[in-house]
Design goal:
The protein is α+β, with helices and mostly antiparallel strands and 331 residues long. It contains 8 helices and 12 strands. Strands 1, 2, 3, 4, 5, 6, 7 and 12 form an 8-stranded mixed sheet that branches. It binds alpha-D-galactopyranose (GLA).
């Protein structure tokens, strides 16, 4: 066995730009200071992890065939990484995490990225994210985009990331020190079994009629007959535009406009994309009338999870006051 190493892989919060990544659109997440830590040594013929969060350990042989059959459930994500990256040696270690599971803060992406680094993955940030996205799809069956894995792999301290999910170019957006990003837990959710996959199909149906949504205009939507498909397209096209406008507003220090765009994004996810829930809607409504809150919206895949707010420092007592953090690394 080799010497002990420590891997830190952060969760992420998406500030704006949801349900755009799998059509090659724009997203603006940041890696956060809620993170997963793996400590252990390389060697052996299996990846063996004990977690402080889970009663059963994960033990995944390096020749695992189908990650979706691994037990216990969380071992599927470890198995997904092993099946995609085929590490030369196994790993034995322990895992702890401050990322709440089932909250939409990418605990599974952090696990994948952490396991890939622990087992010696040596590609670029984008290659790491792509491998882990494939692992996530194999493990969960959810046809996710690349945002979560890329945010965990490529975060930068003090910066959000405007990612073009078509070119996979990352523009690092400095997060000013006179605003806070606060994440408030709404309610538990799991994307597997949710209508997430159906949403990706509806976007594909829209693209079959009007071409790539990342290039389409709102005017083109009139060519879509199915009203649900038209609504989904309306969300994606307008959300891409909001990401651009949000980034420009932040660069000018115009937090009011940035906050309004977050609220518009929430409304679009609620009305056109139908990924919010009544609990998340009332949380957003109660936050945006608070003094010092510029904007708030549901964040991530939806159907539960968290709300993210942009505020003046100290405006909210509750929630995680998250800091833009470095991406996954070996310490
Ligand atoms: C989940 C997926 C991401 C992305 C978001 C919605 O977090 O894993 O790829 O699609 O939902 O923006």
């Amino acid at each position: 066995m080799s010497s002990e190493l420590t891997v830190v892989a952060p969760g992420r919060v998406n500030i704006i730009g949801d349900h755009t990544d799998y059509t090659g659109g724009l997203v603006l997440p940041m890696a956060i200071d809620l993170a997963l830590t793996i400590v252990g040594r390389r060697g052996g013929s299996a990846v063996e992890l004990r977690s402080t969060e889970e009663p059963e350990p994960a033990r995944v042989p390096l020749d695992i065939e189908d990650p979706a059959t691994a037990v216990p459930f969380w071992a599927r994500y470890v198995a997904g990484v092993v099946a995609v990256t085929r590490p030369a040696a196994g790993f034995a270690g322990r895992l702890s995490s401050t990322i709440p599971p089932g909250a939409g803060l990418s605990s599974s992406a952090a696990l994948e990225v952490g396991v890939a680094l622990a087992t010696g993955f040596s590609g670029s940030v984008v290659e790491l994210a792509q491998a882990c996205q494939t692992a996530e799809k194999l493990a969960s069956g959810v046809p996710c985009g690349i945002m979560d894995q890329l945010a965990s792999a490529g975060g930068r301290e003090g910066h959000a990331m405007m990612i073009d999910c078509h070119t996979l170019n990352i523009d690092y957006v400095p997060m000013p020190s006179d605003v806070e990003v606060v994440v408030i837990f709404g309610h538990h959710r799991q994307l597997a079994g949710s209508p997430y996959a159906q949403r990706t199909q509806q976007c594909a149906a829209a693209e079959a009629i009007i071409g790539p949504l990342r290039l389409a205009t709102l005017a083109a939507i009139t060519r879509i007959e199915d009203p649900l498909v038209a609504m989904r397209a309306h969300h994606v096209i307008s959300e891409n535009q909001r990401v651009r406008e949000f980034s420009a507003a932040m660069a000018k220090g115009d937090y009011r406009t940035a906050g309004d765009l977050m609220f518009d994004s929430h409304q679009s996810l609620r009305n056109d994309f139908e990924t919010s829930t009544p609990e998340m809607d009332s949380l957003v409504s109660s936050l945006i009338v608070e003094r010092g809150v510029f904007g708030a919206r549901m964040t991530g895949g939806g159907f539960g999870g968290c709300v993210v707010a942009l505020t003046e420092p100290g405006a909210l007592a509750d929630g995680w006051h998250v800091k833009a953090s470095a991406g996954a690394h070996i310490r």
